[in-house]
Each structure stands twice: as structure tokens, then as C-alpha cells.
Amino acid sequence: MASKLSYDDLWSTVEIAHIGIVIYKVCENGSDFIIKYINGSVENIENLQKEKIIGQKVTKIFPKIKKFDLIDVIQRVWKNGKGEHYPTAFYKDGRICGWRDNHISKLSSGEIVSIYTDETQREKNNKSINESEIFFQTIFDTIQDGITVLDDKLNIVKMNKAMERWYTPKRPYLGKKCYNIYHSKESVCKDCPAKEAIESGLPKTKIVNRGGPLGTPGWIELSAFPIINNEGITIGAVEYVRNVTDRKKAEEELRNSEQQLKEIINFLPDPTWAIDDKGIIIQWNRSLELLTDKKSSEMIGKGNYEYALPFFGKRRPMLIDLALYQNKSWEKEYKNFKKEGNVLTNSEGFYNLMGKNGLYLSATAAPLYNSYGETVGAIETIRDITEKKMLEQKYLHAEKLSAVGKLSASFAHEFGNPLLGILFTLKRFKEKSNIEDEDDKLLDMAISEGMRIKDLIRNLQDFNRPSTGKKTAMDVHKALDSILMLQQIDFNSRLISVVRNYTAGVPKIFAVSDQIKQVFLNLLANAADACDHSGGLITVKTWQEGDTVAVAIQDSGVGIKHEDMSQIFQPFFSTKSEVEGTGLGLSVSHAIIQHHGGEIRVESQPGIGSTFTVFLPITAR
Fold first, then answer.
1. pTM of the model as a whole
2. Which of 26, 35, 166, 273 has the smallest set of CB atoms within 10 Å of its CB?
3. Residues 6+ apart with CB under 8 A from 615
4. Range 143-247 has CATH code 3.40.50.720
């Protein structure tokens, strides 16, 4: 049989209870109440001592109880005997403050008992939680990008204000499928990052072209982050939605701009290429393809000085690398190097691997910068200046010829006057009757040689007389004879014999005399050089062919190699050493003949000899 609790045991239990217990006795006909009893919890909650408040009126101990409205509840319970719950409310006076939750009842003795709890800490906690919720909700709603919280079935649990604004026409949306609200679909999107994040437990991001906010066309960036509970189970996902339409448009405009720039570079007449900051080729234009015989598809993406191979046959830094890396030790590689600001130039360089016979190229390079002023690469453009160089060398050659001509004319003048005196004296001696036969023969020989010297001087003067550039009737035989006379001493020293095989009655041609003589001189000089200083035979032949006069100069020299035949009329091409030839003689001759409406042909066999045949029109063309 269970033991019964004594009256003292019950009061001991009440005394140590964790709730506050107060017993009131009515006074002043229910307008106030006297505190008859408080337990230990009340002492702790209200910071009071029992002996100091027992017997005191409640309005004295708790002066704000009327404002607190608890006195009204006590009075009602005293009057009608029905217990009431006075929900949690805040009490404050000059001594204490806090949140209290009261249950008021009437005892059989007519006394009023109040059982209450101190809810101050709980209310503080709730307030902190609420403030935290408000704080995070404010952040949540302030973010201008859309945020949606989804459960593991892709139902919308929560969304921020941005998403609400974007999809207002789709309300109500809570509890609805995200793909139904956002994309007007009845099934999960094929590339849904939220579904992938929930299934994998990993963040997923995708940029898709499927319409922006309120159905406007554009691009959105979808980032989904899995929500994982304490047990490690994925219970949903947070989907972060950013409208990236403007960014995609800017990227598209940038790509278009870059493409336009690439196309501009691609169609530049000068060979041009660009590299990034790692030395990787990023641009290789069409002109450069033609120059190097390397397609852009072969070159773009390559590094390690790949672009130097067509120019030098080996990997080495070029002007573009000097622009990118600013390595001063590389400057010595360029004889005509110049720097103005960030622009580097090498005004002239000869590249023997370029073209058929090498090319003269000028180069310009500069670094490339991004919008922050950082170096992101470099660009180099080159220009073929071979023709310019050829013209310069033609000019220098012409100047040399002019100087030689003036010197020759001066010599001819200085020798001519004394020669006349010598010839006059010799002829006067011959007129005397008392000259012996042997001496007479010597005088005839001296006069003959003197006349030959006179003719040589006259031919030299004719050849070096400044050209008028006008075409006149010209006898090719006389022109050939005058040039052969000038060359005779050189031919004799080389043991070269000359055979003239002229066709009688060949008509005159219409030409610039000194230019045609220049052609004959070049061809005869080349024929003599071909005989290689070991003797030989040069045959000069003329004939009429249709409305042209043909002049053939044939030598018994070394001949021309088959592989060189296509290049002999190219400027600067020469099989001679730099000392012996400039490589301009045949190219100049070819240009002169073309200018006269004529033609020059060549036939050659290595080891047997060559024949150059010039065809010149009889009348002007």
C-alpha cells in the first residue's frame, strides 16, 4: 500500500518547485490583495525575501501590477471562481522587469493562487531568433539575384523578393514545381542543376538560353547548392538564379569585335601575326600564309618560336619577342633596330630563306595590352621591301655607271686632243718623199692604229653620252661593233675569240640607242664571264624575223643549270660572287627589252654554253 504524503511533504514539494507560487488573500473588498505565501522560486524570480513581503499588499510590492493588467484577472477569478490563464506578458517597474506567464485559480478557502513561470529567457531567445530570422530574411530579400529554396521533390519552399518580382504572374508558387513556375514545363528540365545537385550532393552551375525574368528572352545562370541535414541526407537545394543576358550580350559583342579585328588583321596587305603572353601564336594572317607557305591552321596554337622557322630555319627570338619580353640582349640581333615608345622597328633585314632568292624585309612590333594596362601579348607586321631595295641598288649601279661614264668621257677628251696632234704629225711625215719603204710601212701601221684609237674614243663618247630617252632609228650592226670594240681588250686578255655573223640588209630598229647598247654590253659581258677566263668563243648573229630584228649572242661557256633557268631575270639573282656581279644585269636588260616591245629568250646547256636572243621591233610599238 502506497504511503500517503503528509501535509508538510506537500508544502516541501511546493517550496522547491521550479515555478513561482503566490497565495493572495483579498482585502479592501477585492480592490487589493495581501500576499499570504510565496515559494522559493518567487524569491529567486523576483529577487525578494519572503519575510519582507508576506502580509504586504500586492500593489505595494508590484506597483505596476494594474498597468500589467494582472490585478484585473485576479479580481475576476475572486469574483466568479473561474480560473484564467494570463498569457506571457512583460512586466516592468523601478525594481524588476521580465516576462511572466500566469495561471490564476481560486482555492476553496476563498484565497487566490497564482502559479507562474519566468519566460524572460525564452522571450529573449525568441527575440534573438526572430531578429536573426528578420536579419537573414532581409538579406535574402535584398539580394538582387533570384533565390529559391526547393525540397527534394523540386517543390518551391521559399523564394526571395527578386524571384517574386520576376515571376509575380505565376502566383501562387509555394508548393509548386520549379519547372512549372519558372519554365512552364510539365516535367523536369533536361539540364536542371537543382536536380543534379540533389542527386549528387554537389553544387552545379549552368548557363542556359531559356528566357529571363517575366519571360523575356535572354540568358540565365543557374547555380544549385544541395541542402544536407545533420544525418548527411540531402533534403533539397538552394537555387541561385542570375540574369546574365547583359553579360552574354557584352561577351557576344566582344567576340564580334575580336572577330572583326581578326578579319581586319587577316586582310592586311602586310604579313602580320600575334602571340599571347606565353608566346603562343593567336593570329596568322593570309599575307603571312602566302609569304611563309604556312597555313594559319598549322601555326595558331603553337609556341616555342615556331614562327621563326620560316624566316631563319631555326627557333629563335624575333622582334615580336623583344616587344613582349623587353630583353635588351636581343637587340644586337637586328642591325637596323630602333625603338620609339613601345613600338620597335627593324627597317631592313635580308632573309635568304624567303622567296626564291631571299627577300629584304622591314619589321615593326609592339606589345598588346588589356584594359588594365597589363601586357597580354605582342604583334609583328613585316613588309617586303625587296623591290625598293632593288630600285635603290639600280640607282646606285646607275650612279656608278654614270661616274664611270663621266670618267671615260674625260679620258676620251684628254686623249682625243693629243691623238689628233699625233695623227697630224704622222700624216705630215708620210707626205715626205724621202721616206724609205720600211719606214713608210711603219707610218701606215701607226696611222692605222691611231685611227683605231680615235674610233675607240668616239665609241666610248657615244656610249657614255647622256640618254635623251627618245626612240630613234638605230643600226644594230654599228651598235654591236662599237660595244665589241670596247670589249676587245677584255676579250683578248681572256683569250676569247669573237665571230660576227651579221645578215646583210637588216633594217634599222626604232629604239633608245644607249639603252640597247647597255643590253648588248650586259649580254657580251655575261658571255665573257661564262667562258670562265680559260678562253672560248663568242658568236654574234643577226637576222630579220618578221617585223623584228633578232640579235643572238652565243658563248661556249659553262652554261646555266636547269634549276636556275627560271630565276635568271629575277633582280639580284646571280651565279657570280658579290664582287663580280650585282644580279641586276639581266633583270635590267629584260626590263629594257620589254619597254621597247621586244622579247629576250635564252637557251642553255650546262658545260656547252648559252645563247641569249633579243628580238626588237623594226618600227615603234
1. 0.45
2. 26
3. 545, 548, 549, 550, 593, 598, 599, 600, 601
4. no
